[in-house]
# Entry
Amino acid sequence: MGKDFHRIESAGRQLLALSRLSIEGVIDSKLQVDEIDWPIVFYLAKNHSLIGIVLGGIEHLPKEKLPDKELLLQWLGQTEYIKSQNIVITKVIKKIVAIFENEGIQGVVLKGQGLACLYPRSELRANGDIDYLLINVETSTWLIKKVLKMASSDSKYLHATYHHCDFGNFSGVEVEVHWRASWMFNPLTNKRLQRIMKGLLEQGNVECGGWKMPSLAFQRIYNLVHIYRHLFSTGISMKQLVDYYIVLRASANVCNNDVDDLQKKALIRQLKELHMERFVSALMWIMYEYMGVPKDWLIFEPDAKRGCCLWSEILKSRDDSLKSKNETGNIHFFGNVYFKMKKSIRLFRFGPGEVFFSLIWRIWHALYWMPKYKLIYTMSNSL
# Structure
């Protein structure tokens, strides 16, 4: 595995550098063009949903440095599919907005198309499902039951969790409706998170392509929490790192020095309340070392030791060739809990509180929250 991991690690760094090239249009020292292992970069770009973004970077390279013709044609073909799918997703978002506005409920688009508007070439960003957060109503039992009823006439086995539910498939696009943006396993930290999110949402939102997305102040903390949650579940995608680069870039472009300093202090205070300093410091190291993020964009001082561990975790959790069979195979409920707990213990250095409360939260969710809404526990309903 050592040799394979070295190749993938090197290709991962080049992937992030190509992504930055796509956004900024300038080749910098982070990108060693002569050392790019194109087949591995392509493989990682597919795994991390960066095919279109990386192609945007390839377009800035000299002709003699491009991947071979056959690989380039695959790249072009998959990018065209991403562009066509984004057109479909745009239509579906407008349909979802209309459905809830007819019920007198407003919302904002999270992640995906909620971030694509910040990209110089939004059509290149691959989008999966649509995450729609309801914003002008209190999160209550009434609201959750109403959304569950709207989602399905027989919602007993509906995929629903503490913060969202599957709302349906529209033109081949899965839609998730959120009554909460995210969550934390630690109940005290979760309470703080809900307060912070609510306060930021009340500060307003931004018009974007016929729908609304959250403000940059919300995006700065929400996307960090989203990446943090993925660390403890399915693994972090490099697309999420590129998304956060875009958020930092947009923040730097719109804020003057005084406003930026005030917002940065507020963000640091909020992240400390959520006990996320260790994780964010590790993430800042990756973004500084491999994406060339300017120092004045960084939220915390980069932590090289934890950063190296987080980088290794990102590569392993998303690469099937580096996973064990036990991590990738179909396993029963107790096996699922066992491997989630095993992974949580490995990640203790990034969030001790989250690791400690993870099992307690899952038991509460399965035995109290789901029965409250007459939902049956299934593997897909686990957190």
About this structure: The beta strands are 107-110, 130-134, 164-170, 173-178, 205-208, 211-214. Residues 363 and 369 are 9 Å apart (CA to CA). The chain is about 60% helix and 10% strand.
